[in-house]
Each structure stands twice: as structure tokens, then as C-alpha cells.
Amino acid sequence: MTTTRRSLLKTAGAAAGLGVIGMPALAQGAAGKIVIVGAGFGGATTARYLKRANPALDVTVVERDDRYVTCPFSNYVIAGFRKLDDLTHSFDGLRKAGIKVVKGEATAIDTATRSVSLGDGTKHAYDRLVVSPGVDLSFTGVPGYSEAAAEKMPHAWKAGPQTLLLRRQLEAMPDGGTFILCAPANPFRCPPGPYERVSVVAWYLKTSKPKSKILVLDAKDVFSKQGLFQAAWESEFPGMVTWIAGKDGGKVESVDPASMTVKSGFGSETGAVINVIPPQRAGAIAHAAGLVGDNGWCPVDPMTFASTRAANVYVVGDAAVAGAMPKSGSSANTQGKVVAAAIVASLAGRTPGAPALFNICYSLVTPEYGISTTDVYQVSDKGITTTPNAGGVSVRTPTTLNERKLEAEYTVNWYKSITADVWA
């Protein structure tokens, strides 16, 4: 692990007539009124850093849930060495920072009047809007799959009830059963996530149901941290994990929840537990607001993450087209800080400076075996690209077993650090 990665770790006049809550602040001569849709890694970070940069800003976060359950570390709940409560964060820290947290579902955005409508009929005016809706799952992207089918073949790609369902299925699986994971094509939330899931599920099976097997049917030919994961599977779980690349028939053609089978170019396979991770796209509100492109994601100015589809609107996190940056909690956290700086500069009539963008992805193979990758990014006429020789990855062959254990400790400390930065 490089020193760079360790250091990165430490480190609306008509509004009243429309029933909008509050006039746009700039029209009143105040510092500015910002509405943020979504209190996840991207939205909550933006809110926190806006208030840090200018406490006079009026910042409102709209979130449909009472608490936020993180996707990072949810694989460990599935494997049985974390609880869902460990991943659940309140919004008290945001409120203490002077941020208004409104429970509700954003259903429409009117960029002409600069207002956001909620499901209860209320509207919130803004001078600047940040949309951080995360992802929606495209169930129709896998023939035979649906929201109902997910009750038999969980996706568990949004932390919560699905996470617990997949855990219960693994607990009930007979020793000698097969766990099938169906991985989607790029792009999707958390590129190393499916393979970390395979790893920690393998650890659970090795310790509790050692006759069991894992089959990974993948739409891709390569995946994030592939060499590290596959080396770990060979050393830690010999003979247990079989990965089928897309080019070898791994792309799923259909699923049948009734018979618990998956059909692919590799053949028809029956599993005791089947985890289907479907294709994804930007969250629904981004589509309703016309912020998405033909690919289902939101194009943005790479310097500021301002939407290229609507003025005074920014998109942060998984929903944004962010070039080489992966859709991860770490990326969203970094992007939220860039957006906060860009908004503060915009309200002051200044041009923001060049963004500082990086991503850290930690994964556990077992509770005491960690691997990671770090990248630093730059903005050019090609968009957001990886800065050469500025990142790092875990060594393929560690000199001591202690290196993997240290990275497992770094994984836990990364989670404590980033969640404190976002919600504490």
C-alpha cells in the first residue's frame, strides 16, 4: 500500500403563488438557498461542506427515509460478521450542523421556477439544486426478473430488507448447495462489490458449509481488482469459486424463480441461492426532471458536476456520468466536496478552481484479509481521466500475511472515517 493512499484516507418572485416553501434566497439578498435531493454519500457530503464553507447558506436536504443504510459493508452483513444496525446512520449530525432535513420523496423538479415538488404536495424553492438520487434497478434488463422475483432471487444491491433476505437464504442453504451470483455489465454501482460479495460468502460457506460451491455468471470479461480477487479465491477457497466471463457464456439470458434456474451461454444452472444483480440507471427523479442522457445516466460538467441538461442544477454520486471515476461511496464523497465548492463560487460570482478528485475502494475477502485500490483523477478535454502514476493497488503477492490483515484494518477504519465525515 502506498503512502499516497494512506494519506488520502486521513485526510423563484412567483414562488409564493405556486405554493413554494420560501422565496429563492438570492432574490432576497441572502447568501443562497440550496436544496439537495438525497442524503447519501454524495448529498449529505455536499450539505455538510456547503455549511462549512458558508454557514449563512440555507441548506435543505430532502430524503425519503428516516435513516441512511450504507451499501458499503452490506456484504459483511450477508456474510454474517456485521449487523445492519452497524450500517445505519441518522441525520442528527446534519441537523446539528444547521442543515434542514425534510422527510419526503422528490417527485418533480421545475427548473423554470427553481422548485422541487414532494409527494405530499409541498414545494421547496432553490437558488441551486443538487440531485443525488443514487441508482434505480432495471429489473427488465434480465428476462424473467422482476421486483416480485427479487423476493426469491434477491439482488441485495440496495442495503436493507434485501440484504437480510439474502443472509437468511444463505443460512438456510444446505451444505453442498450452489450459490449463483449474476453480475451485470458496466456501469453499475460499486464495481468491486459483486466480487467482494463472492469472497465473503465463500468465507462464510468455508467456515459453515464447506461442501458448497459458488458460480459467478458475469456479463463482463474483466472486473475490478480481478487479479487480486482471483488470487485470493485460489488461496483461501480452493475449488469453491467458478467465474464465467461474458465471452465464455457468462452473460445471463434469463432467470426462472419458480425452478431457481439461470440460463446463460454457459448452460442452464440451478442454484440453492441465486443473487441476481440487474442493470442500473440513475434514480427516478433524475429521469423525471430530464437530467439523463440516452444511456440512463446524468451528463455533467466534469469541472463542477453541474448538469449539462439544466441550469443551476448539479448531479453528484452514482447518478452522474463521471468519466473514469467509479460509482462508489468514496467517489460520491469526493464529488460532494467539489460540488459544494462550485456552488459557493457560483453564488459569489466566481469561477471555481480545478477539482481534486480521488477514489479509494477497499474490499474484504475474509474478516482479516483486505485488498484495495486507489486512483487520483484529473479533468481535461477528455473529461475525468485517471492521473498516471498517482494511485496504487494492493500488491499481488504480499511479503507477509500481515499486509492483508493490515488492509482489513484499513478497511474498517476507512468506513469509520468516511461515515463520520458524511453523517456524524
Any overview of this molecule?
This protein is of the alpha/beta class and 424 residues long. It folds into two domains: 12-136 and 280-352, FAD/NAD(P)-binding domain (3-Layer(bba) Sandwich); 139-276, FAD/NAD(P)-binding domain, CATH 3.50.50. The chain has ten helices and 24 strands. Helix 2 (41-53) runs parallel beside helix 9 (329-347). The chain starts with a helix and ends with a helix.
**Cα-atom radius of gyration:** 22 Å
Measure the end-to-end span. 28 Å
Count of domains: 2
User: Would you count the extended β strands for me?
Assistant: 24
In the CATH hierarchy, the architecture of the largest domain is: 3-Layer(bba) Sandwich
CATH C-level class of the largest domain: Alpha Beta
Shape estimate: globular
Report the structural category: alpha/beta
CATH fold group of the largest domain: FAD/NAD(P)-binding domain
Query: Which percent bin holds the helix content?
Result: 25-40%
Summarize the biggest pleated sheet. Answer: 5 strands, parallel
Count of helix runs: 10
Low-pLDDT residue intervals, each spanning 5 or more residues: 1-30
Strand content: 25-35%
What is the overall pLDDT average? 93
Describe the oligomeric state of these chains in a short phrase. single chain
Report the CATH superfamily of the largest domain: FAD/NAD(P)-binding domain
The strand order across the widest sheet is 6-3-2-10-20
